[in-house]
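Mods, move this if it's the wrong board.
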Amino acid sequence: MPSQAYDGIILLGLIYLMWLATDKGIVATSIAAVEVFVSLSLAVVLYEPIAGFVFSYLDQNLAFFLPESIADSLGQLSIFLVFSLLMWGTLAALWVLVHPHLIPSEEEAVEAGMPILDKIGAAAVGLYAGNLLLGAALITWSMCPFLWKIPTHAMFLDVGRTALKSTGRFLGEWHGGRSIP
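Not the wrong board. Structure tokens:
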């Protein structure tokens, strides 16, 4: 599939998430954006040390049970599993445990109304949250050792790189002195 098709899919996803954000309002969308950002930041910071531990455990205890083709890719598989669990597990936990307590109730949202500025702000925040969410999905996809690779070098909308740059600028040097692209 050409990279323009991937760009089209990403663009449709961003437009859908912006439209969804206008229905939810700026407060709910901002909270969701922070939840995605926190999940991605935690995953970027913690996946390498935890994946190293998981890889050494799997290599010492399970590698001799597995076929050689799978045993050779245990490092990539452990990185994929750890990043996926950190990113999507943290997001699911935040969405279930924190999100319902911070979002205004339906009655409060109806009482306040939805002025046009709230919808415009929600769409802008939805674009940012969608960029992070789709970027995290592309990052997770690219870490999977047994799926085909998406040619991000030719993509116009490389949201994965944008998401990594966004979290890298926020994290600064909190990740052991290693620069995040």
